[in-house]
Amino acid sequence: MAVEVHDVPDAKRYEARVDGESKVAGVAEYIRTTELIAFVHTEVAPEYGGRGVASASARTALDEARATNLRTIATCSFFTGRLARHPEYQDLLHQSRGRVSD
C-alpha cells in the first residue's frame, strides 16, 4: 500500500491518499504563520485505520516544516505522541520565551 501525502494550503491541511485513489484517506489539519505551524487535528477514515496513513501524514508534514524552517506546535494528540516517540523531530518544537504575566 502506497500512501501519498500532499499539502493543500487552501484547506489548511495535509491530505493523504492510498494507492492513487481519489478519496482522501486521512487529513492533518494545521494553522500556519510565517514562523510556526500548529498541528491541530489528525483524522483517518475508518477503512484506512491502522495502515500507516496518519504516520505518513505526520512524517510528511514534519519533514516539510523542517525544509521551510517552521517551528511546530502540536495540539493534536497524534502529533504530540509522534514527536515524543521520534527524537529526530525535537528540534522543530517551538520553545516558549517564558510566561506572560497577568
Automatic annotation (TrEMBL):
Q: Which domain of life is it from?
A: Bacteria
Q: Name one Pfam family in it.
A: Acetyltransf_CG
Which positions fall inside the N-acetyltransferase domain? 6-94
PANTHER family in alphabetical order: BSR4717 PROTEIN (PTHR31435:SF10), PROTEIN NATD1 (PTHR31435)
Q: What is this protein called?
A: GNAT family N-acetyltransferase
